[in-house]
Design a protein that fits this description.
- There is one protein chain.
- The chain is an alpha/beta fold.
- It has one domain: NAD(P)-binding Rossmann-like Domain (Rossmann fold, 3-Layer(aba) Sandwich).
- Helix content is 41%, strand content 13%.
- The strands form two sheets. Strands 1-2-5 form a three-stranded parallel β-sheet, with helices on both faces. A two-stranded parallel sheet has the order 3-4.
- Strand 1, helix 2 and strand 2 form a beta-alpha-beta unit.
- The longest helix has 22 residues.
- The two termini are 26 Å apart.
Length: 156
């Protein structure tokens, strides 16, 4: 779990920074998870995944602070549930889907393509001075809350 979810992010950032430091500019967008900001035990236990994604959030924060004065921006997107080939098995189960959806304020699981807007924004010049702090984490709409959304009959 850590090899891909944390080490992979670290090694990619390390290599990209070699170029970005020389040119005194660049943007790194890491993919963390909402579970890097809060535990998932209200829905399912995943301590190794949550620890890895929490480490990505903190790595992003540290790199953002370290390289900001060199014109390098480092951000992390912290998505919630998205319909992808990896999540298909779980969210195709109607009971699992209902339980997950009950915790999402927007009342639906996001399509994979919906992450492109925030990513394009962070990669563009439109975000050049957007962040109040280097190493910002972007929570995305539709993330899970700690309790079922209003009007939901979701059960645990």
């Amino acid at each position: 779990m850590l090899d891909v979810d944390l080490d992979g992010v670290f090694f990619c950032a390390r290599e990209a920074l070699k170029v970005m430091v020389r040119q005194q500019s660049g943007k790194i967008i890491n993919i963390a998870s909402m579970w890097g900001l809060a535990g998932s035990s209200s829905l399912f236990p995943a301590p190794a995944y949550n620890a890895a994604k929490g480490a990505v959030v903190n790595l992003t924060r540290e790199l953002g602070l370290e390289y900001a004065r060199q014109g390098i921006q480092v951000n992390a997107l912290c998505p919630g549930f998205y319909q992808t080939s990896l999540s298909r098995g779980a969210i195709d189960d109607p009971q699992v889907r209902a339980t997950i959806t009950a915790f999402i304020p927007m009342g639906r699981i996001a399509q994979a393509a919906e992450i492109k807007g925030p990513a394009l924004f962070l990669a563009s010049a439109a975000s050049d001075y957007d962040r109040p702090d280097p190493g910002n984490r972007r929570r995305l709409p539709g993330q899970v809350t700690g309790r079922p959304a209003r009007g939901s009959s979701g059960s645990r």
